[in-house]
Hints:
The chain starts with a strand and ends in a 7-residue tail after the last helix. It folds into three domains: 4-209, Thiamin diphosphate (ThDP)-binding fold, Pyr/PP domains (Rossmann fold); 217-379, Rossmann fold; 386-574, Thiamin diphosphate (ThDP)-binding fold, Pyr/PP domains (Rossmann fold). The relative contact order is 0.10. Strands 5-4-6-7-9-8 form a six-stranded parallel β-sheet, with helices on both faces. The longest helix has 21 residues, at 365-385. Helix 3 packs parallel to helix 5 (100-108), helix 11 (288-296) runs antiparallel to helix 15 (365-385) and helix 16 crosses helix 17. It contains 24 helices and 23 strands. By secondary structure, it is α/β, with parallel strands linked by helices. It is globular, with a radius of gyration of 25 Å.
Amino acid sequence: MAGKVRVTLAQAIVRYLDAQRVSRDGQVQRFFHGVFGIFGHGNLTGLGQALEEHEGALPFLQPKNEQGMVHAAIAFAKARRRLGTFACTSSVGPGATNMVTGAATATINRLPVLLLPGDIFANRAPQPVLQQLESPHSMDMSVNDCFRPVSRYWDRIQRPEQSLYALPEAMRVLADPAETGAVTLCLPQDVQAEAFDFPAHFFEERIHVIERRPCARERLEEAAAILRRAKRPLCIAGGGVHYAEAEEALRRFADATGIPVAVTQAGMGALPDAHRACLGAVGVTGTSAANRIAREADVILVVGTRLSDFTTASKTQFQAEGVRFIALNVNAFDAAKHGAVPLVGDARLGLDELTRALEGYRVPPTYEAEIAASREEWARTRDELTRSPDGRLTQAEVIRVINDEAGPGATIVHAAGGIPGDIHKLWRAKEPDDYHSEYGYSCMGYEIAGALGVKLARPEREVYALVGDGSYLMLSQELLTSVQEGAKLTVVLLDNHGYQCIHNLQRGSGGRSFGNEFRARRGGRLEGEVLAVDYVKNAESLGARTFTATTAGELSRALREARAVPSSCLIYVPLESSAGLPSTSWWDVPISEVSTVPSVREKRAAYEAARKKQRFHY
């Protein structure tokens, strides 16, 4: 038939994905760089067969865990500034639900990933099929309905021709910086194998133009007027600065106005640490410099961040009477938070427009002097915090050594636990790409899979995964995938024998030690000896070259030696101390109102006092 191509739904999906391109600033690039997949009866003879037969340029990668492959895909997307990603396919059942955590991580962080889980039979003939969750209320429900609340777009393809509408809609969401997140297309296993006469032009190369959307002129004028009246303004830069490639625009803005810049976890590196306007991390995990300035700031310019509770210190960070917010964000939902003047648009365009609108304005000299003094004081404090007085390695010192040894062209990847709190404070960003944090969802197990995604996106970079033993035990399998793909990672594993970040929170909240350390059972509680885990042998069994470091000097040598190794490495670092660095801001973690433990009652009183500092900004 003229102008028609008869293929199965699965074959159509693979062809369509291979043809998608995105363009920004005139630069066209492939959007899907491959497909991660673990096969089962729900996708093997459909998508699996289509991928095996496909003659295009869409490689298949074999992960070892479905959650891990989604983490790798979204880390790839983050490293590519949201201009590229992977599709992820799983079987029906547990393979699909393993991806739900990854989907939530993607959507919360506003990062694109396409999920293609197998599904139950559309024809219902073999119902219940193996791994099917039955419901007495609807025969149309499956475990894939779990993806609905964590996806930006969700669909179930019941007929091959429905993909003519679902796939373009999926691409619209994935490529839109204001809408992007996880997109889930559920694929009944019988429908994957059904054929349809698709229009030939459906598989032609398609370029999705990502526009830089300007802010409304009236809002820019309003924001500029507020900033011109400000005596103590502060800019908070988030991940949106990186996604818009607005780092130079931010530097120009800071140079022209003298307005200091603090950064969120995702915004680290938006302005180099050495820049005189950079105050470093802000909020619960912030530096004393940024948090001191933030407490008294009269105007907060927020660029590309959704202002999570860690950034706002649970709404206690900004204490100036009548403080105003201006929010530059491509997403109108984020731009309207805290009663901000919403500048809905591209971060690069918006910053350049603000710089022009503020021509002739500069913060008062006394404020600039205060900023410089705050930077100098924090530099001295950081130096003290990162040098152990007794020679025993601390987490803070590990971070300093990695920061010193990882020169230009290196990226550090981290996620949940105590590491993000310390590294956010201590890291001295040299360039936009040297710091990669997943802290929107704070997902344990992201680190190694995320590092793999970064390495696939930026193969020229030296990529480090900084991970605790708790996260390593949850999800370390993609270390083997890195060996399989020749995608070299260096994993720095800090072993403190448990979930010590939460252990610290538990004790700091007045509680007794309970359930957070890796100890054998003694009597009725987990209070016996520390469990011995040989992480070195484990990593070696996965194909990694290993090193052990117990001092700062040994860690420096191990990092240098690992850099010369062409394949993946693991550096094992046992830590005696599990204490994190003190915070200069508060975080709202409710303390039990009634307790038999005196220390809990004491902490409850302090908690109630701290809550009085919370502010409703509107």
